[in-house]
Amino acid sequence: MGSRERHDRRHASLLVRNLKYETSPEQLRSAFSKFGEIRDVYLPLDYYTRKPRGFGFVEFFSHSDADEAMREMFGYELDGNKIEVFVAKHGRSDPFQMVSQGAESRRSSRKPRRTEAMIRTQTEEQAPAVTCGKTELTTLQRNRERRRRRSRDRSYSRDRRRRSLSYDRRRRRSISRSRERYRSRERDRRVSRSMERPSPRCV
Questions:
Q1: Please, what's the largest Cα pairwise distance for the chain?
Q2: Please, is 152 exposed, middle or buried when counting C-beta atoms within 10 Å of its C-beta (0-12, 13-18, 19+)?
């Protein structure tokens, strides 16, 4: 019987998220009381700071009231924030659970984040060095040098293509101009020959 009561109580309890830290239990009870009789309203506090954690629990006596409240109050604006309402999987947390959760969150926040510069430095340090006379080039440096050479080769090939295309264009233009000059000279010669011929005399 006791386990059934705990099961019913868990499913009649709602988890309300995205609450303002200033929202009071009375405000939460007033917003949800229109859906039915409320058994309990609980806003957890941080164990160390004793301040609200931005979420709370509303427990109804009736399952149907809790279901209706969850459907109607999801996205409802309470005290300036749009709240989110779900079926609570767990009830109240005891102080020891709150201490362990707070310590875990602080430990995760203290872990240093690996930035891109740190990762690059570690990778370069771990890369095997290749001795070449007095200079030691890492594998990464050699790869960079290869990429630079490839880019230079590509740019050189593009320049050669452009130069060849421009040369072909200039050559075609010069050939067409030569042909035009030749045709013009031929026309001039024909005209001059026709003018030099004696005109027939009239008898």
A1: 150
A2: exposed
